[in-house]
Amino acid sequence: MPPPVVWQQRWHPLREEWVLFTSHRRGRPWIGDTHRPADLPVPHYDPTCALCPGNKRLRGANPPYAGVYWFTNDLPCFSAEAPSAGGDDFYQTRPAGGTAEVICYSPDHAKTFVDLTDAECAAVVDLWAERSVALAARAEVDHVLIFENKGALVGTSNPHPHCQVYAGNLIYGFIAREAESARKFWEKTGRTLGAEILAREAAGPRVIAQDGDWLACVPWFARYAYEVFLLPKREVGRLGDLRQDERASLGRMVREVATRYDNLWRLPMPYVMAVHQAPCDGADHAFYPFHLEFHPPLRKPDTMKYLAGPEIGGGSMTNESNPDEKAAELRAVPSVHYKRLG
223-262: buried (b, 16+ CB within 10 Å) or exposed (e) per residue? Predict the structure, then answer.
């Protein structure tokens, strides 16, 4: 049993901020709201779903697609037609130029990433890479953010298996901070930040799964109880830098992380997954540490990790868990989904 992490602050090297650890508070009395994710039957096709094959959307309709499928978001948050706005040197404004897309993992409304075959997993990552390269080539795009919101507890309004792609002239704050921290680490040490984190996590007790290309871990500086990082064993900056075999193995590792999450409490674990890749703004991002992050909101089967006073009011995260212990829990569950194990 690892020692408790009590009254300790840990430096998050990517975000350059302190995370407060208080694992002794995980068992505190809780009489607040509880939310257990529903594991209800979902139809393979839903005639009211805007993502199912052949169905109408706000603008247009989906073709009868049979595999992975993408389209431009009907209500994008960026646009090539973004108008100029007013403002001054203090209250500044700028157009939100770019586009947004939706990627459907499968035509089957009932599936999640854990249900995809090896070939389907590879097809998803191939499309992530293809759309990233195509969008990054657009003059108005400085960064491509791919993310998946899984489950109603993280605000997903449609259970159809899908993710979103935001490509615009905004470099999201965490990405900008990671790019800067990686540059400063290289200038200070002559080492790359991604390789340093990989070496430390590979040698520690927080690895939950790995193959020849990828390592999945609950990082030493985790902000959430069951946060998982997927780290490449070869240094790359963007999805487009991955070889074909690395894309395929990444798809399998994403599925394994999602499977271990579901197996933890035998329920569909909600999470936010984000692909962290280097900006495409023309600057030198040679040292950017490409990785994927998973942020599940649950700290118990029915108890949320709420962002409250310290997080919202103070701006710093508190983690009431021990990353070593949480990694051990995820590592101990099977890599085959519980619904197939019986």
Answer: bbbbbbbbbbbebbbbbbbbeeebbbbbbbbbbbbbbbbb
Q: Contact, 320 vs 225, CB < 8 A?
A: yes
Q: Is the CB of residue 135 less than 8 Å from the CB of residue 185? A: no
DSSP-assigned states of every residue in 18-82:
EEEE-GGGTTS---S---PPP-----S--TT-TTSTT-B-SSSB-----S-EEEE-SS-SS-TTP
Contact indicator for 299, 315 with CB cutoff of 8 Å:
no
**pLDDT class for 1, splitting at 50, 70, 90?**
low
* Burial class (CB within 10 angstroms; exposed 0-12, middle 13-18, buried 19+) of 1: exposed
Q: Of the listed 162, 276, 285, 291, which one is catalytic?
A: 162
Query: What's the CA gap between 24 and 245, in Å, rounded?
Result: 43
Please state the pTM of the whole predicted model. Answer: 0.94
Domains (range + CATH), the chain: 11-26+36-341 (3.30.428.10)
160 carries an active-site annotation: no
How far CA 18 is from CA of 15, 149, 304, in Å, comes to: 9, 26, 22
The mean pLDDT value for 111-129 works out to 98
Which has the closest alpha carbon to 77: 152, 189, 164? 164
Q: Please enumerate in sequence order all residues whose Cβ is within 8 A of that of 85, keeping only pairs 6 or more positions apart, or say none.
A: 93, 94, 95
In whole angstroms, give the CA distance from residue 299 to residue 288: 30
- Assess contact for 259 and 337: CB atoms under 8 A: yes
Q: Is the pLDDT of residue 162 over 70?
A: yes
